[in-house]
Amino acid sequence: MGTGSSILGADADWGETSLGDMPESCVAAVLLNLDPPEICQVACLNRAFRGAASADCVWAGKLPANYRYLAALAAAADDEGDGDGDGNVKPCSPISTKKGIYARLCRPTPFDGGTKEFWIEKNKGGLCMSISSKAMAITG
């Protein structure tokens, strides 16, 4: 079955093809199976891979289910930390891509008065949390 099409292809002058000739949607389908650092490395290969590596469909699967809530917490923490020294808060521009949201959530975000912080583990996308001793209470 495959030999017939191989024989037909051998006589035709198709020209040279490369990885850049692959449709972005096919590249994106492959990238869905990679870890985030691997996706970023593959993005350096060529324009098609770079475009596919920035697609929201690729990064949507890497984000936790509650990423909207976490992104809102991160935006609130960014707004609190963006003062100009006079008590005025500079508005933070919203992140428009899922890749940008993933990158932001990989940075530690303090909340609950700075006694706790969360982040996404870069390699596998697991949610991590750190609780300071000030946030803990010994009962009993």
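(ticket continues) Second input and output from the same batch:
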Amino acid sequence: MVRCQHQLMEILDVKSINKCFVFILPSRSGSVSNLDLDNCGLRGTLHNLNFSSLPNLLTLNLYNNSLYGTIPINIEIGLLTSLNDLQLAINSLTGPIPPSHRLGTNNLTGPIPHSIGNLRNLTTLYLYENKLSGSIPQEIGLLTSLNDLELRTNSLTGPIPPSIGNLRNLTTLYLFENELSGSIPQEIGLLTSLNDLKLETNSLTSSIPPSIET
């Protein structure tokens, strides 16, 4: 694991405000599996970093820094094929959302991509407090390892997809403060592990299945 410590990395190029951080990973960077840089006061864009040298990366944690700009394509599943935990929440990232997770409290726009269904190993998907629009894709139901799904406080529209009933390991489902409409799918009643469900501040009709209410 690489943490925010001087003995494990060197911070370079702090003179330019547009390129405030570049760090050098250990020479055997291909063996790094966890990169933990949360709350480090990092500034700059993710385009400054070369993640292609980290083929075995499982966790990338840049939570609560001062990152801005768009999320580059190389953070997606294309190059970091082993990645199962990406945390970029509480930054100032903008632009469309890539298929990743823990991107809450940014300024991401556009729809949730259908390719989200490719991330079969995800256990958490945090996209809350962004500016996402469009419908929740049916492919969300392919993420059968999910425990927590938080899409709250966006501008998502349309119905809740029935495929959400496939997420049998789900314990938390937050869809409140969106523009969702239509009936609450009965398939939500299949989520027998669910213990925290919030759907308020939408335009949903029908009632929550009794199996969830009890």
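Agent notes: The first helix runs from residue 210 to 213. The chain has one domain: 11-213. Closing as not reproducible unless the customer responds.
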